[in-house]
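Re-running the complex after MR caught last week's input typo. The corrected sequence lines follow. Everything else is unchanged.
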Amino acid sequence: MADIVAAITSVQGVKLLDFSSDASHNRSVVTFVGTPEAVEAAAFAGIARARDLIDMEQHHGEHPRLGATDVVPFVPIAGVTMAECVELARGLGRRVGEELEIPVYLYEEAATRPDRRNLADVRRGEYDGLKATIGTPERVPDFGPAAMHPTAGATVIGARMPLIAFNVNLGTADVGIAKKIAKAVRGSSGGLVYVKALGVMLEEKHVAQVSMNLVNYVKTPIHRVLEMVRREAARYGVAVVETELIGLTPLDAVLDTAAYYMQLPKLGRDQVIEARIWE
Amino acid sequence: MADIVAAITSVQGVKLLDFSSDASHNRSVVTFVGTPEAVEAAAFAGIARARDLIDMEQHHGEHPRLGATDVVPFVPIAGVTMAECVELARGLGRRVGEELEIPVYLYEEAATRPDRRNLADVRRGEYDGLKATIGTPERVPDFGPAAMHPTAGATVIGARMPLIAFNVNLGTADVGIAKKIAKAVRGSSGGLVYVKALGVMLEEKHVAQVSMNLVNYVKTPIHRVLEMVRREAARYGVAVVETELIGLTPLDAVLDTAAYYMQLPKLGRDQVIEARIWE
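Corrected-run output:
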């Protein structure tokens, strides 16, 4: 993995934000930031290196995956629009398909077909399943050959909003309550559109948790999700005892949350000392 | 004033964050940031320029002041301790006293005597009052001559925490309620140590306001102040309708506020995407 990270960070203008490797999932996540051109070049370098180092025929792991590079999302952070990220994703997809001969599927905002917006739909059947069906019209890739790369498989590339991993721990060990709350708040069952939620048991703390991904914090802000969880929990006489933000959160999401609870009409970056210094 | 700002920003490594001039107060505020050495050099350049341009014998304005440069606070923002800011303040004070021949008083964290910690105490009598009493032992300056500079008067230099100007608008036009709440929450009358508060009438909105300065947001965080105001207002059946943050607020204060209301055990800068990119 160090080789792949080195290939990415060797590109001028790219800054590594985070790198994590999980043995049981047999999966690594590399997060980096930079100018659009630098980030695209670095992503290409990483995909090329992973193609040379990972043989999917020998690869096992718990996490769903399609190829040596499973998924590459471009995420707009500052000074760049979602439309520009979509263009970057499609440009990279074309290069990966043509130059590296890896079949590429475009997903989320970069998707060319509605049935490919959702990453889980694109990953259906995983490496072995896609290998068997890639010749069918339904699964023809957006770029590259209509056949799996012999060692690197296939890759999903796209553009999406920053995702916020937000968990709410409940004052109960009854996971059934967490599952009911998750069902109430998630978009797929009638709740908030940009919320994905599951009820799970946190064995180490012996509490039930509503584990969520907020996939659009602008349209569905953190506070609205938390307060809905709180109201739903109250019908079971259960309180929120603690929350967790996993990984990185965009500054604007934090500012909006503070503004809501402080009853500020608006809290902008231009009011934060460090943002004024840095930007 | 443009001349003074130019003198400050001509120093390499200094970034101007804010500049405001108020005609009725006849007072300007310049906020800048940089390395300790650059900020000290820029402050010296600004004080020197103000000495040459402003004649206190001809100066009138509503705001309390002692000299052409009234007060210079060093505020630690990142990568610098309060102790280092105190050293900067004292180093600058010595130079201003010796090289510019302006009497200098050290205040707040840089104060050398307890009766000079509070800026209002140092400013007592203002320009004319100090001119009459500067020869007394009680008012001997920390640096420079024990006589007012003939045009520039005297200057107060010190170090302090970033100050948060936080106002809470109430659902009432009864300024008496705002005054009672201010008295309950401020340190000087038994409330929270690092809160200064007044009850005022906001004529344009026709609501009463609790207008506050939070002078140590680490030891007295925003949420604790707001919730105390809310509880005190509730005894009069009055709600908080809106709040205001005036000027710039430190990122850590915003993160701590969001963490409190979200029930996160901790929200660190390392969890904020932009802070990771910038720092």
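None of the earlier attempt is carried over here. The mean pLDDT of chain A is 94. DSSP finds nine helices and nine strands in chain A.
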